[in-house]
């Protein structure tokens, strides 16, 4: 069954198409926004092997030709060198402001391509075709684009919204299980932030989600996209409410940093543990009942994610080191640490006055 979610942003809006078989329909979906029958596709080697031909065939059905730029997979692809080489490659093939570039891949390809699109000749339009669960429910929606620099992750970027998002559910069937679970962390996040009903749906369907059951997964993608679209519509550039999307993320970034951003710990895996930590810390502060904190933790664990810092892969993690990283998080201003905490499941809020001493004590116990 086809579903559509609209992201409304002041003057303009765009659609997220969610259904199976969409790559084969990419021509018909993109045709209305094309000024000439050609597109540029940016993808990575893994995705190109499995899904590129289907997309190209879907475009060809409508007479649309595609120039393809294939990059290596992995986080290190989000770098200055690839920003430059991708822009150059597209321009060498005649890309200009009238053209559309398609990002076919996970968050790495989406983030880099969105930035390329924003910069090439002061901006060309782009379409997100997210192929990981994380990209479908999170990175492809909302218009944040970036590459990494020596100074840190995602520091060089633009807010740049796509023309549309095409979330083909079939591509999720080829995802490695770790990538699926990493995406599920971002899915349950939306329930934990402000949607108890969705949290309960995830609780009840944990097994099916873990097995990538197409119907249940699509429903989870739809609700997640609606949640992200709603939050982004209310706060496009993260001056307020959008910060709720960082639930578990300040803890997660500290874990990722402590691990050195190595392959032993995926972002979503860190987020799973980070959200459990946010609930336990909320409980320690007396904000949230122990019952709710345990329920949150169990639901995260049921998705195949680790909730115990001491058992998390890529460790060991050390309390003081985690605190140090949290104090230097890019969202920490003038030593004032902001955390997303919870008064219960679906009752997350922005705490701007986190006490470093209590946090230090908490992190000691956790590690
Ligand atoms: P990713 O793009 O590296 O993809 C993960 C792996 O899965 C890669 O090896 C990729 O080649 C492979 N893959 C992708 N689709 C596949 C498929 N259908 N079948 C088989 N393999 C497939 O990682 P990700 O988790 O999608 O994205 C992570 C990135 O997203 C990070 O750089 C992060 O900073 C960024 N991000 C951005 C935002 C945002 O708002 N812009 C939000 C969250 C995360
Ligand atoms: Zn995340």
Structural description of this entry:
This protein has 367 residues and is of the alpha/beta class. The protein has two domains: 3-174, Rossmann fold (3-Layer(aba) Sandwich); 177-366, Up-down Bundle (Dehydroquinate synthase-like, alpha domain). It has helices spanning 26-30, 45-60, 80-92, 107-119, 133-139, 177-194, 196-204, 206-210, 214-234, 249-258, 267-284, 290-302, 319-327, 356-366; strands at 3-9, 12-19, 38-44, 65-71, 100-105, 125-130, 144-149, 152-159, 164-168, 339-342, 348-351. It has a seven-stranded mixed beta sheet, with helices on both faces. Helix 2 links the parallel strand 3 and strand 4 (65-71). Helix 6 packs antiparallel against helix 7. The longest helix has 21 residues, at 214-234. It is globular. The protein starts with a strand and ends with a helix. Bound molecules: nicotinamide-adenine-dinucleotide and zinc ion (ZN).
């Amino acid at each position: 069954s086809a579903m559509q979610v609209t992201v409304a942003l002041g003057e303009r809006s765009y659609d997220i198409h969610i259904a199976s078989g969409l790559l084969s329909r990419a021509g018909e979906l993109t045709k209305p926004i094309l000024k000439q029958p050609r597109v540029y596709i940016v993808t990575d080697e893994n995705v190109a092997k499995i899904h590129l031909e289907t997309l190209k065939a879907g475009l060809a059905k409508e007479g649309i030709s595609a120039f393809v730029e294939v990059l290596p997979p992995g986080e290190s692809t989000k770098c200055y060198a690839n920003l430059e080489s991708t822009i150059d490659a597209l321009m060498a093939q005649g890309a200009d402001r009238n053209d559309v570039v398609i990002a076919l891949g996970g968050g790495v390809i989406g983030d880099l391509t969105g930035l390329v699109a924003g910069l090439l000749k002061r901006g060309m339009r782009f379409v997100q075709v997210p192929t990981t669960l994380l990209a479908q429910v999170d990175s492809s929606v909302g218009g944040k684009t970036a590459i990494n620099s020596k100074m840190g992750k995602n520091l060089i970027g633009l807010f740049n919204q796509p023309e549309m998002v095409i979330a083909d559910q079939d591509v999720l069937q080829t995802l490695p299980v770790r990538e699926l679970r990493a995406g599920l962390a971002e899915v349950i996040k939306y329930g934990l932030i402000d949607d108890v009903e969705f949290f309960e749906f995830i609780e009840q369907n944990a097994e099916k989600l873990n097995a990538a059951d197409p119907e249940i997964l699509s429903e989870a993608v739809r609700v997640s996209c609606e949640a992200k679209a709603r939050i982004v519509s209310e706060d496009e550039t993260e001056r307020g409410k959008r910060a709720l999307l960082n639930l578990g993320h300040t803890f997660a970034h500290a874990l990722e940093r402590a691990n050195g951003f190595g392959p032993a710990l995926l972002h979503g895996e860190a987020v799973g543990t980070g959200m459990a930590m946010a609930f336990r810390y909320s409980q320690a502060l007396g904000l949230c009942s122990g019952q709710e904190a345990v329920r949150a933790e169990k639901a995260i664990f049921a998705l195949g994610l680790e909730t115990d810092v001491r058992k998390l892969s890529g460790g060991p993690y050390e309390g003081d080191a985690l605190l140090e990283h949290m104090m230097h998080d890019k969202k920490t201003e003038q030593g004032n640490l902001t955390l997303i905490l919870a008064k219960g499941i679906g009752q997350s809020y922005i705490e701007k006055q986190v006490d470093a001493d209590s946090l230090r004590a908490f992190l000691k116990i956790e590690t």
